[in-house]
């Protein structure tokens, strides 16, 4: 098992010192998974020997203890999972501002037991209507370099997270909307102790122009220009005011009123200005979409379809593995070889076909057609690695509108949370402002996303073929976010998801294989070292048991790289009438239950 030096106890202690949160902490400092962290108020919460958090009624797992606690309090007060999602997201915006918030976008997968219905909400950011495929080109027609594109208003898409939360609450909320914002408002006013991860993120982003914009600099840096450090108490009264306004009037001021005006002004900043208009904000809609579900052995793995590539790529990997005896092989080099080979083929299809299907013709169903995937799987040789890049296949499709592949990487800076309430309403939500600290532009106490860099910056391939994921007015950039709910015999058995850019797909698929095929407990599956292949080298997670695969995989012909894989998986398994929660040891999150 990996030995993660970073511990969650430091942050909990810091929070307690700030008087913000009181936890009872038991166990050694080595590893949260075995240390045991129990909030005092949850008498029915217990820990299994493996370290997972077990509850009987309701549960939340999120990337920061204050955010998870905000959700737990809502659930304990009789709130629904949707109510808790509002409280969790608003608190995440405050305490993990580098990763998500109302300045960004999100996808939620929702299981409604009352209606026996699974649906998804697409709160992805959109490009301004006036954007076209020259958006990311400089005067010479060359695509802008990554950081040149990220920093400033030009990368900001119309945010969708607030409207998504409002939609969730309108359909499934039980408590009053303003009350759900109170925990974040109070914490913004009294202050919270900055977590080690937030402090480290600020320090790391300083030379990535985090201190370029005045509001951002004033909030994250000291007067002498040094980054604020862990334990510093941060207050954000401006954000509290923003939330109060949203508490009173819902999302209206954000999309059409005074907050909208400030967003537009901030985006049209003089550094790398954007072209977002008030009309773009006013026109924003959250789209309810059918989930993408893929059968895998006895299970149905369901998640977010286009504009995310998440569920389709996870589904392709699993669909190709379905013909191999993964359960029998266990977590062996042979099994990881098959996994990496399936991943190469899946990422080839992802690059060529996947984008916002409202704008681009896409073989959505064909990509996860079982016969197609079985056929693709015949390209996998159990005895030898295929050369990379593997080529995309030709899924069954009426329209042969083949475009050119997108080769763009994405950068980390996102959050995933999972919630189950006492009535069995379940939400698996991945939420983002794209890279850490997004565009760096801050207004009204929150950061604005840089999601438009998730589009291909080049509009076409060298031969002039348009790229599916090119910029178009009103389009949503392709995502990798993979909020997932797994079913067995029509009943949900697992909620999971992660941040991590285009590696999200692997963090989720690794854990699914570990839990569904190898019978690992969710916490063990999240602790497990990651194996990633994005149609190139096979990447093994540094400092974990995954590194020991290097020799055997090299012998099979894999090009190996070893690197950190900072996932942020959060999961809840539903087993024998109990909720088993797990939080990624690589971040600061916890699972809390009732
Ligand atoms: N912007 C990325 C996406 O939507 C997520 C970035 C991340 O996870 O860090 O796929």
From TrEMBL:
Protein family (similarity comment): Belongs to the gamma-glutamyltransferase family.
Protein name: Glutathione hydrolase proenzyme
Organism, as annotated: Roseospira visakhapatnamensis
Keywords noted in UniProt: Acyltransferase, Glutathione biosynthesis, Hydrolase, Transferase, Zymogen
Post-translational note: Cleaved by autocatalysis into a large and a small subunit.
Positions of L-glutamate binding: 124, 454, 479-480, 501
Catalytic residues (positions): 414 (nucleophile)
Subunit annotation: This enzyme consists of two polypeptide chains, which are synthesized in precursor form from a single polypeptide.
Organism domain of life: Bacteria
EC number(s) on file: 2.3.2.2, 3.4.19.13
Pfam families named in the record: G_glu_transpept
A biological-process GO annotation: glutathione biosynthetic process
Pathway: Sulfur metabolism; glutathione metabolism
Region of interest: Disordered: 457-482
Reaction catalysis annotation: an S-substituted glutathione + H2O = an S-substituted L-cysteinylglycine + L-glutamate; glutathione + H2O = L-cysteinylglycine + L-glutamate; an N-terminal (5-L-glutamyl)-[peptide] + an alpha-amino acid = 5-L-glutamyl amino acid + an N-terminal L-alpha-aminoacyl-[peptide]
Molecular functions per Gene Ontology: glutathione hydrolase activity; leukotriene C4 gamma-glutamyl transferase activity
């Amino acid at each position: 098992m990996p030995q993660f030096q970073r511990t969650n106890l430091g942050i909990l202690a810091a929070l307690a010192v700030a008087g913000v949160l009181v936890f009872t902490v038991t166990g050694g400092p080595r590893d949260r998974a075995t240390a045991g962290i129990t909030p005092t108020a949850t008498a029915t919460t217990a820990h299994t020997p493996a370290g997972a958090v077990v509850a009987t009624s309701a549960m939340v797992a999120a990337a920061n203890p204050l955010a998870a606690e905000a959700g737990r309090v809502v659930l304990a007060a009789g709130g629904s999972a949707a109510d808790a999602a509002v409280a969790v997201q608003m608190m995440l915006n405050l305490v993990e501002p580098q990763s998500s918030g109302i300045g960004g976008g999100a996808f939620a997968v929702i299981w409604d037991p009352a209606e026996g219905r699974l649906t998804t909400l697409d709160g992805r950011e959109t490009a301004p209507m006036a954007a076209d495929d020259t958006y990311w080109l400089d005067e010479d027609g060359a695509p802008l370099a990554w950081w040149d594109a990220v920093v400033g208003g030009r990368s900001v898409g119309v945010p969708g997270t607030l409207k998504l939360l409002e939609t969730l609450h309108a359909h499934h909320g039980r408590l009053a909307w303003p009350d759900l914002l109170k925990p974040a408002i109070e914490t913004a006013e009294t202050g919270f102790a900055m977590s080690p991860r937030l402090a480290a993120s600020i320090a790391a982003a300083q030379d990535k122009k985090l201190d370029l914009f005045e509001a951002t600099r004033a909030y994250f840096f000291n007067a002498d220009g040094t980054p604020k450090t862990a334990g510093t108490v941060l207050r954000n009264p401006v954000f509290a005011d923003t939330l109060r306004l949203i508490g009173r009037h819902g999302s209206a001021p954000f999309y059409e009123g005074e907050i909208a005006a400030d967003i537009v002004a901030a985006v049209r900043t003089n550094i790398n200005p954007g072209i977002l208009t008030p009309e773009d904000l006013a026109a924003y809609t959250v789209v309810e979409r059918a989930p993408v579900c893929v059968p895998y052995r006895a299970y149905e793995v369901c998640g977010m379809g286009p504009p995310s590539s998440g569920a389709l790529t996870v589904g392709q990997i699993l669909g190709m593995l379905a013909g191999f005896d993964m359960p029998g092989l266990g977590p062996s080099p042979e099994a990881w070889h098959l996994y990496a080979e399936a991943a190469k083929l899946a990422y080839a299809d992802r690059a060529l076909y996947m984008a916002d299907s409202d704008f681009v013709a896409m073989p959505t169903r064909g990509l996860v057609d079982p016969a197609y995937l079985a056929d693709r799987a015949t390209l996998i040789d159990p005895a030898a690695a295929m050369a990379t890049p593997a080529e995309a296949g030709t899924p069954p499709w009426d329209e042969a509108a083949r475009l050119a592949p997108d080769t763009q990487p994405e950068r980390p800076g996102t959050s995933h949370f999972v919630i189950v309430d006492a009535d069995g309403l379940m939400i698996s939500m991945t939420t983002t402002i794209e890279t850490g600290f997004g565009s760096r532009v801050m207004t009204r106490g929150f950061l604005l996303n840089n999601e438009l860099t998730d589009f291909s910056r080049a509009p076409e391939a060298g031969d002039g073929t348009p790229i599916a994921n090119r910029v178009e007015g009103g389009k949503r950039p392709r995502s990798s976010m993979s909020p997932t709910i797994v079913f067995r015999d029509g009943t949900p058995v697992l909620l999971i998801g992660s941040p991590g850019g285009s590696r999200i797909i692997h963090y989720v698929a690794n854990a699914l294989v570990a839990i569904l095929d190898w019978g690992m407990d969710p916490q063990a599956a999240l602790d497990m070292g990651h194996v990633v292949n994005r149609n190139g080298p096979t990447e093994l997670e540094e400092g974990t048991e995954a590194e020991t695969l290097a020799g055997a995989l090299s012998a099979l012909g894999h090009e190996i790289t070893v690197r950190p894989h900072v996932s942020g998986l959060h999961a809840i398994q539903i087993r024998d009438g109990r909720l088993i929660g797990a939080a990624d040891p690589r971040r600061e999150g916890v699972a809390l239950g009732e």
